[in-house]
Design a protein that fits this description.
The structure is a homodimer of 241-residue chains. Chain A is built from nine helices and twelve strands. With 241 residues, chain A is of the alpha+beta class. In chain A, the strands form three sheets. The first copy, chain A, has a four-stranded antiparallel sheet. In chain A, strands 2-7-4-5 form a four-stranded antiparallel sheet. In chain A, strands 9-10-12-11 form a four-stranded antiparallel sheet. The radius of gyration of chain A is 18 Å and the shape is globular. Chains A and B meet through β5, α4 and α9 of A and β5, α4 and α9 of B. The structure holds a DNA duplex (30 and 30 nucleotides).
DNA sequence: CGCGTCCTTGACACCAGTCAAGCGTTGTGG
DNA sequence: CCACAACGCTTGACTGGTGTCAAGGACGCG
């Protein structure tokens, strides 16, 4: 299944017509090698795009070189829809591994929204979920201790990947260096390293070689105080469009 | 001028017709006393609303009672447009002083968007700015030290209030206790107190009695590493709808 | 082989959290 | 009118979670 169709089906399953229309609305796939920026902070934004494969992240660079990772983009995640109303990008998007992306014009999306109410709602849902995740990150970085934060990030990533069907048993792709982990959690890379070792020693997870393997999800969730409500994966049938 | 008109005019000045249509789309004003929640975490969302007067905040409560303030809502800020696609609220909205709010239905907004392209773009801009601010908060809490964070929050608040014409010289409303300040910055209230005293002693600002007074904006910005790009207040004429 | 990247470890310093106590103001009820 | 509680602010002493510095090891790659 097409990554975007799979993603939007999390909100509500799409029929063949909707899925086809969606795929046709996308521009040609473009390849972005690992560690390259898809778009750069400060640029004038042009088109939105959808991540088709790989994992990318939003990140912000401070003047003095500090870096904060703001979110992870997974296959099917769309990015910067309607951003053309802004004059300047306030953050970059970095491919963490080799990625393929496809551009989408706002016109194509407007057409889809007008033609297919379910797609409109699904795109809307995706945008709201992304905002919700951003808010959870604020709370995560602001309130939780280093180990809680790390556990929370891993829980979130695994849940998101699992919802997309991108897990392999207890494992999933998470192509971060320990420096990246530190920059995502707002801790130093040395501290990230020590936290990882603690988790490993406790037998909660394994992390390395670009993959996360969760060995004891229950305890990990408990450490994180993880509650997946904010991912809004269970819209319940009552609310499906 | 109506608060919402004033806010959206930051993107692009509205003509009389647009302003009138906008005001008519709003439901009756409702009063919310200070310290009361406008909407509560866990509730099923119904309608969106616009803050007409006062200051409110989004906040998230963790299971163990920790609290994180996620953002401040200023007059004209709209809230949760289109949230009806979600099954459950992931955060609360709290009135920090007495507020008045007005509800808006998604239908009314859809109509306005269809009828007035400029309003559509302006609403879209407002949503993107809010997301941008959320991302900046992640970077703020994740990367900056306590004093940098505090300085940054004050700079941001003053800039936003000033853009809305809600400042009184170097002063503006900021109705937070020191506990609130701590919860917004992710520091303990005791530490928030000490940071405030530092700033006071340095003659950078005064804070108390629900008001912030900035005495040396240049230095404060410098301490914060503040760059207002992310507020997207200067869309430049080239991009105005 | 030599270099770069990433991971690991130990020693030390410090920012910020916690605990505990005290003060001023406000509001309320006897 | 005063006693008292509630709240918010302030201060000091102590602790501890994290950051910093420094060094070294493992691995891949040109």
């Amino acid at each position: 299944m097409h990554p975007l169709v799979r993603k939007l089906s999390l909100f509500s399953p799409l029929n063949t017509e909707e899925a086809t229309a969606l795929e046709m609305a996308l521009g040609a796939a473009r390849h972005v090698p690992a560690k390259k920026e898809v778009v750069r902070q400060g640029e004038e934004p042009r088109v939105a795009f959808v991540l088709l494969s790989g994992v990318a992240c939003r990140q912000k660079l401070l003047d003095d070189g500090r870096r904060q990772i703001l979110s992870f983009l997974l296959p099917g995640d769309s990015c910067d829809i309607g951003i053309a109303v802004l004059a300047q990008r306030d953050h970059s998007i970095l491919a963490l591994v080799d990625c393929t992306v496809s551009s989408v014009t706002d016109e194509a999306l407007d057409y889809l929204s007008a033609q297919y109410p379910k797609l409109r709602n699904a795109l809307h849902w995706a945008a709201l979920v992304e905002e919700s995740i951003a808010r959870e990150w604020i709370a995560n970085v602001g309130q939780r201790s280093g180990s809680e934060r790390m556990a929370h990030m891993f829980c979130e990533h695994y849940c998101r990947m699992e919802a997309l069907g991108l897990t392999d048993g207890p494992s999933c792709l998470l192509p971060l260096t320990q420096i990246d982990v530190g920059d995502a959690l707002g801790v130093s890379p040395i501290h990230a390293n020590r936290l990882l070792q603690d988790f490993r020693r406790l037998g909660l997870l394994a992390f390395g070689d670009k993959h996360l393997t969760i060995l004891n999800f229950d305890i990990l969730k408990q450490v994180a105080g993880f509650d997946d409500t904010y991912l809004h994966l269970n819209q319940l049938d009552s609310r499906r469009a």
